[in-house]
Write a structure and sequence with these properties.
heterodimer, A: mainly beta, 7-stranded mixed beta sheet, B: 113 residues, 0% helix
């Protein structure tokens, strides 16, 4: 069965970087795009960007363009989301999510979420 | 960016009654190549990731109860729960995947009266 397993919670100081991993299993890794979505405490869902695991090509929300890097390692079926210059407003649960099918970018499989806390 | 606006922000409905959530996009999300609307609905319960309910505006994901239905086209969409059950208490989000950046509605919190 399809699974996305994310790395554990992180606590970072303002100005630091965080790298969240998302390990995929149960399907052919390179066949499906993976998106990153975050959710601040008590808030809604915010789209951060998407990576094509086959080519490594990415598309980021302009808000994060200067600070985010999404990469993948096909040998381990893992995608990574690196966010730099962290500030308190980046405190959120970060989710990776996979397309349900290759027909469209509706997100049928989600990781469990990774809480990133930014605090001095 | 396409702005997704949901209404209402919160909704209180009695068990067994109908719940209706609306989602309006700032521009059409009709994908011309397949004549389908690039609009999905998700349900999120506390402490859990979102769960896909509906895609292409009206296609129910496998395993989703048939009391959930989606409708609409172009810029105006609706998620309907025909007979509210206790387990439907959650926050519901619409999501346009017509173009990047993908965007979500602000969410609608559904509670039992």
């Amino acid at each position: 069965q399809v699974q996305l397993v994310q790395s554990g919670a992180e606590v970072k100081k303002p100005g630091a970087s965080v790298k969240v991993s998302c390990k995929a299993s149960g399907y052919t890794f390179t066949f499906y795009y993976i998106h990153w979505v975050r959710q601040a405490p008590g808030q809604g869902l915010e789209w951060m960007g998407v990576i094509n695991p086959s080519s490594g090509r990415t598309d980021y929300a302009q808000k994060f363009q200067a600070r985010v890097t999404m990469t993948r390692d096909t040998s381990t079926s893992t995608v990574y989301m690196d966010l730099s210059s962290l500030r308190s407003e980046d405190t959120a649960v970060y989710y990776c999510a996979r397309l349900l099918t290759t027909e469209g970018h509706f997100l049928g499989y989600w990781g469990q979420g990774t809480l990133v806390t930014v605090s001095s | 960016d396409i702005v997704m606006t949901q209404s209402p922000d919160s909704l209180t409905v009695s068990l067994g009654e109908r719940a209706t959530i609306n989602c309006k996009s700032s521009q059409s999300v009709l994908y011309s190549s397949n004549n389908k609307n690039s609009l999905a609905w998700y349900q999120q319960k506390p402490g859990q990731p979102p769960k896909l309910l509906i895609y292409w505006a009206s296609t129910r994901e496998s395993g989703v109860p048939d009391r959930f239905s989606g409708s609409g086209s172009g810029t105006d969409f609706t998620l309907t729960i025909s007979s509210l059950q206790a387990e439907d208490v959650a926050v519901y989000y619409c999501h346009q995947y017509y173009t990047t950046p993908n965007t979500f509605g602000q969410g609608t919190k559904l509670e039992i009266k």
